[in-house]
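Supplementary Note 3. Input sequence used for the single-chain structure prediction.
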Amino acid sequence: MANVNRVTLIGRLTRDPEVHVFDNGGKVANIGFAVNNRKKNPQTGEWEEVPVWVELKAFNRESGRKLADLAEAHLRKGHQVYIEGRLSLDEWTGKEDGKKHSRTVVHVDEIQFLEKKEAAAKARRELEDVPF
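The predicted structure, written as C-alpha cells, is reproduced below.
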C-alpha cells in the first residue's frame, strides 16, 4: 500500500522563530504558524476565516540545507511564507502533570518568502494585537 506524507501550506508566522542548538552542533528553528480555513457561519450565512495554528520545525540538514539558519535570519512574526514539509508526531510526558502529551508538527523541507519586507512589517504590527 502506498503512502504519501506531504504538506503544502501558505500562512503567517505567529511568533518569531525560536532557535535551539544541539550538543552535536545541529540546529532547529521552532516556528508558530497559522493558516485560515473558510467556514460558513450557520447563523449569519456569511463565510468566515477560521485560523488553524500549526507548529513547524526547520532543521539544518547535513545535505547542506540550512533551513534553521534561514528562518533565524529572515523570518519574523507576521511574515507570510509558503511551506512544504511532512507531518510528524511529537510525544512527551509532562514534567508537572506526568501525563502523556502529543501534537502534530510539520517538518519543513522548503520555505519560500511571499512578500516584501514592508508588507511583512505591516502584517507584524497587525498581529501584535492578536493573542496566540
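The first strand starts at residue 7 and ends at 13. Residues 36 and 111 are 18 Å apart (CA to CA).
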